[in-house]
Amino acid sequence: MKTARLIVLGVAVAAGGLAAFLASGSEPAPPPAPAPVVQLETADVLVARGDIGIGQALAAQDLQWQTWPAASAGSGFIRKSDRPDAIEKLSGAITRAALSPGEPIRESRLIKTNGSGYMAAILPSGMRAMSTEISPETGAGGFILPNDRVDVILSRRDRDAAADSFLLSTILQDIKVLAIDQTVEEKNGQRVVVGKTATLELTPRQAEILALARQAGTLQLALRSLADADPSKRGKLNEEDRSARRINMIRFGVTTTTIPK
Predict the structure, then answer these.
(1) CB within 8 A of 254, min separation 6: which ones?
(2) What does the alpha-carbon distance between residue 113 and residue 53 come to, in Å, rounded to a whole number?
């Protein structure tokens, strides 16, 4: 009897040891050590603090330095490490295009006016800005916006005809609209600008033609499609159109005929 008890006790001890061994083998392995954190190289870039409209003169409070990944800071960005005094140097510059909050400042989108107005600063060399009166009827119902391109149509009375009749002439083609009244961009998503004056970008010769046409009759602006853009033909007429669009010019009592180019 005593021997049987010893056998049972031995079996129980062996079973407990086996259970303890199995339990210790099922424990999960310890987690791997965390990988070392890679430090990302950064750079302080000059950005717009808030919304900045086109033609707005920059002030120091409009700009701020913002940390950017160095790899994403393009060559056109202004870095604090290269130009720590950029905020002071760029104060007074005028924007060529609207800027959004946090958008990097690029000098290609700024104009140093040196005391000149915005319009004089953005005009390309050799070009002129000239205004003409418009109305909803003569300005495409108000759907002409700054930076659109238009044709200028002259409507005038035909004095040689026996009955009342009018002549229509397209005197200028593919002309850029610089502004409608004092508006040089869309405001708050506004898609219609109903104004009384349109400012056009013209060559000196085109400015003379427009000034003469204003005295000869009524001018209307015809909005052109963006799909028709052709820089090589801007402001020009083909030979058939030019022969049909003659304007009489009087200088010092002498009448000459000019053909828009």
Answers:
(1) none
(2) 16
